[in-house]
Amino acid sequence: MNKLGYIKVSAAVPQVKIADVSYNIAEIEKTVSELEKKGVNIVVFPELSVTAYTCADLFFQTALLEEAKRGLENLKDFSRARDICFIVGVPLKKGNALFNCACVVCNGEIIGITPKHYIPNYNEFYEERWFTPGPADVSEININNEDIPFGMNIIYNYKGVNFGIEICEDLWVPVPPSSNLAKNGAEVIFNLSASNEQAGKHNYLLSLIRQQSARCRCGYVYSSAGIGESSTDLAFSGNGIIAENGTLLGQTERFSLEPRQIVRDIDVEILRNDRLKYSTFSDNKGGSSIEGYHFITIKDYISSECPDLSPMRHISRHPFIDEDESRFKERIEEISGIQAWGLIQRLRAINCRHAVVGISGGLDSTLALLVTVKAFDMLGLERKDIIGVTMPGFGTTGRTHSNASDLMHELGITALEIPISASVMQHFKDIGQDESIHDATYENSQARERTQILMDLANKYNGIVIGTGDLSELALGWCTYNGDQMSMYGVNTSVPKTLVKHLVGGYARIENNPRVREILTDIIDTPISPELLPANSDGTIEQKTEDLVGPYELHDFFIHGMLRHSFSPEKIFLLATVAFDGIYDKKTIKHWLKTFYRRFFSQQFKRSCMPDGVKVGSVCLSPRGDWRMPSDASARLWLDQVESL
Fold first, then answer.
1. CB burial class (10 A; 0-12, 13-18, 19+) of residue 166?
2. Residue 552's closest CA among 497, 617, 478, 476?
3. What is the 8-class DSSP label of residue 631?
4. C-alpha distances in angstroms, 252 versus 25, 241, 260?
5. Measured between alpha carbons, how far is 575 from 565 in angstroms, rounded to an integer?
6. What is the set of active-site residues?
């Protein structure tokens, strides 16, 4: 692995000639040489790639089997002094049986041989005519006067990463060998395949690979036969697929007349952290039906650490947002549905028919209002029983005020306007606060006055206060303790700021009312601000949150790296420099990363008593299940690492 925790893998689909071992070996060597230059650590080739898969009864020919063994010897010699491990498919005889095998070759050695265990004998596949199911237990097979480990339950370690192998049909059975391999330590699975094409089969295959990588919390690298295989009865399109923990990292073009390879970095650290975090993975280990796994450590030619290269994988700047446009509407409806459903259950549980929402004209309160409206619509309650309250103060601008008022009117809820300036000024007199000093007292007094109004209105209308604060604000502590930090139910609790903006944009896209679309679009374009300081002389917003705490897209990136994957500050920084290349320089990223850790640790006390709120994604800061942290924990370790960057 490199310092990012990556192993660089490839699924290669070469051209083959049926039963022409010399040609096939040359193509494998050519591909390996190309991939070594790209820094690939491990590459897998298709099933029976040394001979081609569709040799049929030619597999019984001694000449072909002996030539295949000579081909392996050539590959062994070719691999010497090369910093790459490769896995090829070859038919091998042991005793009186013929096996469909995967051979691991590296640095002048055939490291081990994994036979195919589940041999199909149905429809177009009659492999049992030629091959015998491979044994689970590890023994030895003699190849060119050398005894080599032979068996299904072999786990290899290369450059600090454990990997296992299964072959084609092995993946399609109820309990694939990869399940037991993963339970016993394999972090990446390589599959040598020769699966033919059928209408609709490809999508099923993708789903199967993604699901297996998710269940096993592993990387999955799949290479299937392509150009050159016989089309007597079947079509082999050539599939190179790489998945990681349920996510498709990439795939090759199918039906190509040219050889294809796909190269990706698999993040082994993500896999290890998830296996550590989710105890059910370890709990399931006892269910393994195979005992006696054999572990082989493969010696490196150069070093145990992979070179540091730019990651060959997509690093999303906005990890909380699904970038697949085809799923946009589905994703928006799903998340907003979860938010609304959580609120519905709370309203039903306490027999409540009124909700109070503070509306500022900003993103968070807008999303909270839209979710509340959706919940009331689903319950069949009157929208007028939602009490929206705009509370203009010292920093309220005409833009946000009009957007708040107009949105409430267009949505048909009960709209109240309660200015807070006079009451806050009285409060300043009561506590001896100089109104010209714009400090934390000046700002927080306004936030707490607004919360008091909302709470008292909830009592008056026998309703509940809907919290508007989002995940990013909670992570940074950018909220007033017992002010906007407090509510009776928070619908945005686990929605980060970038996703809030995305969701409001989604509502705008699917909204039928053109005026509502117009208002929502303007709210999205409005600078994020608590509006607690007086506006500029021209009436525009003076206090811009991202000027003070940093860009939310950076903080959300930091949040995802730290909380979802438990990455170190160094790794988060390095990934951020890739994701935001050309947008923020390294100095800027480091500055805001330091701000993030400082605020995250110092503001935990606000999260320790946060209100109930539904979880919508993989990251949440609720102290009741998702994040338990002492409020007085030291940030020194993390800040020191940031300083050393």
1. buried
2. 497
3. T
4. 21, 7, 7
5. 12
6. 47, 116, 168
Q: Are 98 and 91 contacting, i.e. CB atoms less than 8 angstroms apart?
A: yes
Pick the closest to residue 404 from 421, 390, 387, 416 (CA basis): 390
What gap in Å lies between CA 185 and CA 394, rounded to an integer? 60
CA angle 49, 50, 52 (to 5 degrees): 55
**pLDDT value of residue 614:** 94
Q: Are the CB atoms for 249 and 266 separated by under 8 Å?
A: yes
Q: Are 366 and 520 in contact (CB under 8 A)?
A: yes
pLDDT surpasses 60 at 248: yes
For 335, 415, 428, 454, 482, the CA distances from 486, given in Å and listed in that order, are 23, 21, 22, 10, 5
pLDDT higher than 80, residue 286: no
Q: At 517, phi and psi to the nearest 5?
A: -60, -40
- Residue type, position 181, single letter: L
* Measured distance CA(39)–CA(27) in Å, rounded: 19
Give Cβ neighbours of residue 144 (< 8 Å, ≥ 6 apart).
69, 70, 72, 73
Q: In a 3-state reduction of DSSP, which class is residue 189? A: strand
For the entire predicted model, the pTM comes to 0.91
pLDDT digits (tens, 9 = 90+) for 169-226: 999 999 999 999 999 999 999 999 998 888 888 999 999 999 999 999 999 999 999 8
DSSP 576-594: HHHHTTTTS-HHHHHHHHH
